[in-house]
Structures are given as structure tokens and as C-alpha cells.
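quick one, 437 residues, struct below
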Amino acid sequence: MVALLENSHILSDVSNSVARGNLIQVATILSNYPVRTVQKMKFRSLLRFSSTLITPHKIWLAALISLAAIVPPPARAANSVILRVAIQQNVAQVNVGSSVDARVLDASNQTLGKIQGMNGFAAQAKNGGVALDRWQGNAIRIQPDDPNGVVWIGDRWYRGSVAIVPTGKGLTVINYVDLEHYLFSVLGSEMSGSWPQEALKAQAVAARSYALYEREGSRSQLFDLGNTAGWQVYGGVQTESGGTQAAVGATAGQVLISNSRIINAVFHSSAGGCTDKSEEIWVQALPYLRGTKDQFDEGSPVNVWSKPVSASQLGSFGVGNVQSITPTKKTSNCGRIKEVEIVGDRGRRVRVSGDTFRDRLGLKSTYLTQISPQVVASSKGNTKSTSTGFVINGRGFGHGLGMSQWGAYNMARQNLNYRQILGHYYQNTALSTIDVK
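---
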């Protein structure tokens, strides 16, 4: 494969390294040139995709440059955990490929063929199965030959391998990835690799615990968890950094346990200074989610907030012109809204849960401190007034259970270590090291 670049010296070095599947060498070569120089290069075919895959060349240039940032991970232990992470669900087609030579396997793990490194294809749902180039099967998996290789799924690189499985509404695309390597990305997606190491270590332990808790209780036969904020955000290798890898390595295998079981170590962006008991936000009372009050979120960008809500937005509640919004149920520790009553003109009223109220209006949390109407006189000489909307003030960002990420950030800046951070947010727990089964 020949890559056509304006700089012939870089062309020769890069194309030779790509041909050998040596991505680390590619990274080294590109790192020796200014970013501006690399960005101006004209790549025509560093990724040769089949004629069924139409993608702007500039996307693949960005894809190659992103490979330059990948730091090779430590060797995977023989007893490591493999997670199945759903990257896309119910899609008609998905772009997949590999950075190195890879085997194409069927549902029985039998080899159907091989693809060369830096090649990609469009996998499609076909006749109740999966079609990938000249291969078809009940399911198809791409397994890189080199453990340091990465796979392309949709629009980014991921460690591990990729499986494409037909479902009732299309294809589900699953990344099979080592737990520790998965965490490299989760930490960078949920926090930032530049955050203090003790905060990142606390996030590593919490995210590892959460992933294993979800893996054990997964109701899907296909995957253990997803890649969005509904689980924990997993963005592939582009969100990794030296900081996230260091934190994962320093806490390798560590989880939080309570009553000899790995806990559901949920977390959120900012508590606004107060976390709640699990049974008041969800249903089940958990001994390790008992709520806290502190000042560790002070100064965070989402510690306090205000949002104006228009009359048209409030119209979704179906009570006409909203006259009042009154909280009717709150949590005992923080006062998060569990239920509100919304009263409209002509006496119409409705009660909705705090979560529904938050979702409909796009609020950062249910930790609301003030709900104030905005009113104007309805007409000249008329003493009556009409609401044009409300201003809602609140605190924090997220559900308010478990660890506050901004709280962890500020605790780390105050020289508290990750064990102290975890002990603060997850009561009645202990650190343990996983025994893979």
C-alpha cells in the first residue's frame, strides 16, 4: 500500500511502517514533525476501504494521526477480564477495520479469511445475518493478529476486537476489550487525563467496580454494558492519555466491596455539596450509598446553576399556561426534588416525578434551590399578570448518588488520596483485588 504525501521523506517512512503493521513506529515518525506539518499532508490511501465505504479522506487522516497518540499498553495478564461493550445497536450498516492484519471469524470462532492492516469495510445486515465484503455469517468478528493492534468501529479506534451480530432491528456492534485497557478510555471520557492522579485513581476504582457489577448482572446475552452516559462513557483510544493509563496501572485490579460483593459504584459530575441515599433516588437501600454533605464541589463549573424556562417548554406538561410549580416530595438529606405539582390556568394540574421534570426541561439535576415565575402585566390598566416562564436555580450535575467527580477533583487538590476519596463517597466499603473467574 502506498500513501501519497506531499512530503516524500515522511511518505517512505510511514508507508513502510504501515505495511509492517508497526503503529508504534508510525507514532514515532509523526511525533518527529510539527503537528501543523502533519495536518497538511495529503493522505489518499493510508486506509484502503472497499468501494461500498465512502468516507472523506480527511477523516482517515485524523484517524491515522490519532494512532500516533496511542501509548502501547502493558502486556495483558493471563487472568485478565474481557468486557463486551456495545458500541452501536440496531444499525443497518457500520464501518469496521483493523490497524494491523486481522482474522475474520464466524460465530463458531472459525476463520473465514484475513484482512490486511489499515483496510476497512462496511458491514451490513443481510438475510438475517451479517455481510462483510465477500464473507457472510450469523455473526462476524475481526480479531487483530497483533495484540497491540486496534480496531475501527464507526468513526474511531478501539483496543481489542470487534464482533458484529444481527439483532431484530439491525446490527449490534460489540467491542471485546480487556477491562484494564477499557478503563484507559473511560477515565479520559469521564474525567480528564490532566486531572490530579488521586482523583483519576478514585475514578479508576469506581469505574472498574461499576463495570464488573454490570457484567455480573447483565440481562443481555450479547454484551455486558454500553458506551454512553447511561452506563459510563467509553470513547475508544482517542480519550486515553498517559495520565489515565498511569491511574489505571496504579490501581490495577482494585475494586470496592461491601458484604464481600463488588458494589454498584455509581458516580456523577457534581453533587452540588450533597449526595443522597440510594433508596430516595432509586428504590433499593444500599449500605454504601448513604449520602454525604461537604464543600468539596465548591468552585466547580456546575456546582450552582440557573436556567430560564419558557412558557412553550412548560407546555409539554399539558396544563395550559403554567401558573405555579411546587415541589411536593423531596429527599431527606439534600432536598432533591422527587415530585412536583404543576398548576395551569383554569385549574388544570399535574404531578410528575423529579426525573421527568428534569428530563423534559433539560435541567442539570433535580437538586433545585428556587423556582421563580417570570411575570408581566397582561394588558394596560389590568392588575392581572401572566407568566412568561420560570427561572430555575439548582446545584450539581447528575443523579447525586455515589462519587462526585468534581468533589474528587477538589479533594485530590487538597492532598487527600484516592482511598480517602472513595471512603468519603462509598461508606461501609473496603478495597479488594479481583479474583478473575
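The mean pLDDT is 85.
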